[in-house]
């Protein structure tokens, strides 16, 4: 596992807002506690809102923006499919959230060539 992959894994472990000990993260990621301590300092230096200290544990205090992603055509197709399903969900929070998420993703995506079927990530009224 590369350092960047490990930092991403640490972020995933901290996302639920619960206190996580360095010892537990180290065991889960197969590294030493010292490595986790250094990684936590790196995350703080990057501006990630992590609070805590050695021997006590760490917690992520607020939501963090996702890093830029490069998605393959298959990943985009899967994302489109999941968003379509979510938009049709009986729980209006899920549908509203899916539409909001699609709009946010649309705002940062480069223009795609037009396709036959309507995509939730395509601007309203556009094909593709």
Task: Walk me through this protein's architecture.
By secondary structure, the chain is mainly alpha-helical. The chain folds into 2 domains: 3-60, Orthogonal Bundle (Arc Repressor Mutant, subunit A); 68-128, no CATH class. The chain has 5 helices and 2 strands, in the order H-H-H-E-E-H-H. A two-stranded antiparallel ribbon has the order 1-2. A hairpin with a 3-residue loop joins strand 1 (50-53) and strand 2 (57-60). The longest helix has 17 residues, at 92-108. The chain is elongated and about 50 Å long. The relative contact order is 0.10. InterPro entries: CBASS_pafABC_assoc_protein, DeoR_HTH, HTH_11, WH-like_DNA-bd_sf, WH_DNA-bd_sf. This is HTH domain-containing protein. Keywords: Transcription, Transcription regulation. It comes from Rhodobacter aestuarii. Residues 108-128 are annotated as: Disordered.
Please render the helix and strand layout as text:
Blueprint: H1 3-14, H2 22-29, H3 33-45, E1 50-53, E2 57-60, H4 73-87, H5 92-108
Structure summarized in a few sentences:
Helix content is 51%, strand content 6%. It has 128 residues and is mostly helical. β1 and β2 (57-60) form a beta hairpin.
